[in-house]
Amino acid sequence: MNGKLSINILILMALLVTFQASAQTLTQTVRGKVTDHITKSPIPGATVMVLGSDPLIGAVTDGSGDFRITQVPVGTHTLRIGFIGYKDVILAQIQVNSGKETVLTIVLEEEINQMNEVVVSATEKERTINDMVTVSGRTFSVEETRKYAAAINDPGRMATSFAGVVGADDGNNNISIRGNNPNALLWRMEGIDIPNPNHFAAAGAAGGGVAILSAQLLDNSDFITGAFPAEYGNALSGVFDLNLRKGNNEKREFTVQASLLGTDIAVEGPFSKNYRGSYLINYRYSTLSMLAGLGVPLGDFVTNFQDLSFNFFLPTGKKSTVTVFGFGGLSDQNRNALLDSLSWQTEFDRMNSNFFSNTGALGIKHAYILNKSNFLQTTVLASGSSMGDKYGLLNRDYMNEERFYSEFGQSKITFSSVLNTKISPKSSLRSGVFLNQLYYNVLEQGYGGNAGQMQTHIDAKGSTQSVQAFSQLNVRASQRLTLNFGVHYLQLILNNSTAVEPRFSASYALDEKQRINLGYGQHSQVQPLGTYFAQVEVDGVITFPNKDLKLSRSHHLVLGYDRSLNPYLRMKIETYYQHLYDIPVIPGVNQTTSILNQEWSLMTDHLVNTGFGKNYGAEFTLEHFTYRDFYFLLSTSFYRSQYKTEENLWRNTRFNGRYNLAFTAGKEYHWKKNRSFGINLRTIYGGGLWNTPIDLEASIVQGGTVLVESLAFTKQNPAYFRTDVRVSLKRNRPKSTRTVALDVQNATNRKNVFGRYFEPMDGSINTVYLVPLIPVLSYRVEF
């Protein structure tokens, strides 16, 4: 009797403890550092307040610029940071979870006049991290990559919610910015150019199937869609300027996420208790085979990928730090032909295919505060990529007949040094140099239908160099007017191609709610290295007709208008015109091929820099920043994208969709105490991409797809429509945060058209469709 009573009492006590634990208000620590935005010097005495807290809670930065606010209730908060002589900063949508501390790095901009006539305040989302960007730029947060429906922690897929950005293929994260070729995009990390950070990337491409960089490592970053400042070069369309998050330097924390796309494991923490340095490491392994096992049609390829990324932050004194960062990714897709000729219905059934794409980078960055006015950042980065693709067809005797083989290896050692100088509270100067040592090894062979055998298109290896230098001046002429002047220099030593590119932008505040922006930039880009080594054999003599190709170049002009309708609602309008010239095309008055339409493989034809292009349009954005757990983003674009070869006729580029509308929204409901339910939606409707009609009779004779070149890009795909949905359930526990989510890509299962091809097995023209409905279930634990 007494034993049973004791057991009942213990059970009751356990239930009471469980109830109290689930009913208690969970809190977490919010801490970080406040620095000057130019010199990166710490700002002691700055106030950091949690708006809306009752009673009001906050902290003051110490002599190192550090602050700590304890007992902050879990949820979404807004912080106000201020210091005498500096503009106040408002950080909205700061997510506080019980599983991990919230660690922030905050920069303040110095006031130019304490008795100003107009006070223009900005939230975190209304300005870019790079203060030199005044047009066509926005910051994006890690929370966006996590919350946006079907973004699956991928910056490229997330960006299709923004104005002027169109996905080129649902099966990958290639994006076309304002009608440009997807390969015109620049990737940058920690202030230095990096190779394409995507799995399943092709030679010369800027996108791929899945991002290598996990959201676990990313901090708030910038995305720029045109007329970018002088510090960015070797790009024609846009820039992803990524920043890495520093690991927690006080306590060890873990994040584990398992999904049908892969398993992520991240660990971060201090190297020791008495050292302010930290480490952050993330490893991911793919589990795409699980989707196929559930019956999701992912194709007949066996797909694998894994990646590792890291960021080690190492303070070396009060004025200097060393950062060691990097990433590496391995990916491959393989397929074996069916060994039963009676089951061959298409040529694909008898195809053997092997593809691999490996990429990596390792960087060391040294940051040093020279004095109260100068900040120097020097970085050395070693990077490389190796990509290969081969396929063949089984004949009736089940012997493999090779049809294509390529192997593209490229490595690079980059040295950069950038000096930031605060000339006065009104002006600052940023200047730098980038030196690149390039190594290449390229080989491409293809089956020649007329020759009846494999022919070599590219075969070269060696090394060359490229040089970039820039200087840009930021002048806040008044509280209303900000000016940026800059120049960028680019040179490819291989053939001594050079470009000197002026840049200019201005921003004028009409009042505290609205401003107009103007930007101009001349931009250029080196061709994919393999294109320079395309070879032609005539009478046994091999020549390289593309070795002297010049840089592709463009002028980009942008005019914009911004208006804050209320503290949480912002409207933005931008118009732009881009003139492209010196574009490589196939010579001849009857030729219609331009590198502006190239998306996946290298161009191996003889090219000349006589082509042109033009992109122009208008964009409208209406954005409701997260307030009361609700946000939305409406982006509308109307544009034209055309090109011209030596035939002197303006044609549609492949990416001339003409219009695009994207609506992204989400709402979080607090279901129970410390629990929340989120629903997110993204709908995209836009004009289809363009294709060249197929000559059926010629294709039958040739035994493969033959295009009607005189009608290049005259056939438009049907309008593109796609809806993605994400639902999530988050629960904060005393020492962990757990989130289960379901992302449904193409929830309506719309059959969007990608293109068409000739099928030699039955002599017909078949249609290729983009991805169908794909569910991605994930479970995430932070502790």
How is this fold's topology laid out?
Layout: H1 2-23, E1 27-36, E2 47-51, E3 57-60, E4 66-73, E5 75-82, E6 89-96, E7 102-108, E8 137-140, H2 142-147, H3 155-158, E9 165-167, E10 175-177, E11 185-189, E12 192-193, E13 198-199, E14 210-211, E15 221-224, E16 238-242, E17 253-259, E18 262-270, E19 278-286, H4 288-293, E20 302-315, E21 320-335, E22 351-371, E23 374-394, E24 400-424, E25 427-448, E26 453-475, E27 481-492, E28 497-509, E29 514-525, H5 529-532, E30 536-538, E31 541-543, E32 552-566, E33 569-585, E34 608-627, E35 630-644, E36 651-652, E37 659-669, E38 675-686, E39 690-691, H6 696-702, E40 715-716, E41 720-733, E42 736-745, E43 753-759, E44 764-769, E45 774-782
Parallel strand pairs: 1-7, 11-16
Antiparallel strand pairs: 1-4, 2-3, 2-5, 5-6, 8-15, 9-10, 11-12, 13-14, 15-16, 17-18, 17-45, 18-19, 19-20, 20-21, 21-22, 22-23, 23-24, 24-25, 25-26, 26-27, 27-28, 28-29, 29-32, 30-31, 32-33, 33-34, 34-35, 35-36, 35-37, 37-38, 38-41, 39-40, 41-42, 42-45, 43-44
InterPro entries: TonB-dep_rcpt-like (IPR039426)
Protein name: TonB-dependent receptor
Keywords: Receptor, Signal
